């Protein structure tokens, strides 16, 4: 059973109020430093962030999607809470500012959650502040919280679930959070089920279902499904589920090893999870999560610098916090461990932050330039076929077709019928069928992506005319593999027509 907190671990409201204000102050300072360094108008260093932004804008407008014809506003959205918050802020703020506010809200909630997690387990104020800073700087957490995706909110959600689950008495807050977690990230439904099973209370299940219902209704009304289509789209397009198990384990092992190296000293808290029921839930959740990715999409364990694995970090901080309720020597060990995590985070911060700056520059230069170039293409020449549908969907005016299927659901059954069963060998068949069905006049593809998937070269080998139309200056600052080329497409049937 989970150990009960002694009365001595309870802290005064005034102390915790001061600590909460401290968290707010730290986040406010960080926000203003970031705004000073990167300008008043935010730029998010991932294309997927702009899918969220585009979807929020379309949702608020109540009008048909102007870029993806016939596509529901929430298609391509994995985190409904992330989109809904951004849409809510869009009612009063410019879209870019609205998404930035959503990100900083996630950072604030995560910082507050870390502080409260430590305090619930009996930490002194300085220990709680230490754990907060360690959690905020561990690995590449700053990049994950500011890249425009939902990772910050997911970290906050998991951390607060652990806070509520650590308290002596079960709370309505835990049940409500369990209802919301799957709409922060779909895989968190596993954690919700485990925490609710630990509660063993029918009332908790009722509160969880009450929290889920509005989001289920919104998703059903908008897309006709209660499950985000992004999972099916990625699984079908990347077609890794059919790989030999040994190959999938090798891919996953490499990425998990790289993530473990990033976490570094934080891994010292892993053994402490065995001693508490909540810690064992964390270990079981991690096992199920990793097994699911190994089975269906092992390469996702690397995507955006292991972003799907960051929801596991709050359990390490739980392991640290749980030591502060034990004898003094273990509490001191926990403090030293947290200090080591923070020291590693601060030491590696400049290197990790250069990753953020590199992606930031490529979005602000390359994706912006690409969008402006494509907007000069006459509309009558047909829609653009592409694989990164976020920035161009938000900032551009062209009709677009997403070959992966996040924003073009018609691609999903093609990849499920052709790409996935063939383990990617018939991916080009699916892409060609989609290009013909949607009468695409241009192909937009990242040159690094083209080297691997060979979409343009493959179509050309099948008789299509594939002509590059975007030129780059000799001193163009973006590396060649990170540039997007635009090809004019002419299908064989048009070439052979009189």
């Amino acid at each position: 059973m989970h150990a009960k907190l002694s009365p001595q671990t309870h802290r005064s409201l005034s102390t915790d109020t001061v600590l909460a204000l401290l968290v707010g102050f730290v986040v406010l300072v960080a926000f203003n430093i970031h705004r000073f360094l990167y300008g008043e108008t935010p730029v998010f260093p991932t294309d997927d962030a702009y899918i969220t932004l585009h979807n929020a804008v379309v949702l608020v407008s109540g009008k048909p999607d102007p870029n993806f014809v016939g596509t529901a506003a929430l298609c391509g959205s994995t985190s409904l809470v992330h989109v809904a918050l951004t849409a809510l802020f869009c009612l009063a703020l410019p879209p870019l500012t609205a998404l930035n506010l959503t990100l900083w809200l996630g950072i604030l909630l995560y910082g507050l959650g870390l502080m409260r997690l430590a305090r619930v387990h009996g930490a002194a104020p300085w220990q709680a502040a230490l754990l907060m800073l360690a959690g905020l700087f561990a690995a590449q957490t700053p990049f994950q919280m500011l890249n425009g995706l939902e990772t910050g909110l997911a970290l906050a959600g998991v951390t607060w679930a652990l806070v509520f689950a650590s308290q002596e008495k079960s709370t309505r807050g835990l049940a409500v959070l369990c209802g919301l977690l799957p709409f922060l990230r779909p895989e968190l439904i596993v954690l919700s089920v485990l925490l609710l099973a630990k509660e063993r209370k029918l009332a908790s299940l009722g509160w969880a279902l009450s929290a889920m219902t509005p989001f289920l209704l919104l998703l059903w009304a908008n897309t006709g499904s209660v499950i985000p289509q992004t999972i099916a789209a990625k699984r079908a397009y990347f077609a890794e589920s059919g790989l030999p198990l040994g190959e999938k384990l090798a891919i996953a092992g490499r990425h998990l090893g790289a993530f473990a190296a990033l976490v570094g000293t934080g891994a010292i808290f892993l053994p402490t999870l065995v001693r508490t029921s909540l810690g064992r839930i964390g270990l079981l959740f991690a096992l199920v999560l990793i097994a699911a990715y190994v089975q269906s999409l092992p390469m996702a364990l690397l995507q955006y610098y292991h972003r799907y694995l960051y929801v596991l970090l709050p359990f390490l901080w739980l392991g640290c916090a749980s030591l502060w309720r034990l004898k003094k020597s273990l509490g001191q060990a926990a403090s030293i461990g947290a200090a080591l995590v923070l020291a590693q985070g601060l030491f590696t911060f400049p290197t990790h932050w250069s990753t953020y700056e590199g992606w930031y520059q490529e979005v602000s230069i390359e994706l912006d330039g690409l969008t402006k170039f494509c907007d000069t293409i006459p509309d009558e020449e047909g829609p653009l076929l592409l694989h990164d549908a976020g920035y161009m969907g938000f900032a551009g005016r062209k009709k677009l077709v997403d070959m992966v299927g996040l924003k073009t659901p018609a691609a999903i059954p093609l990849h499920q019928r052709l790409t996935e069963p063939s383990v990617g060998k018939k991916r080009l068949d699916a892409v060609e069928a989609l290009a013909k069905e949607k009468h695409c006049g241009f192909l937009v593809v990242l040159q690094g992506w083209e080297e691997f998937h060979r979409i343009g070269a493959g179509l050309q080998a099948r008789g299509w005319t594939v002509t590059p139309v975007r030129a780059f200056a000799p001193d163009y600052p973006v590396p060649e593999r990170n540039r997007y080329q635009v090809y004019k497409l002419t299908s064989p049937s048009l070439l052979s027509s009189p």
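The longest strand covers residues 484-490. The mean pLDDT is 91.
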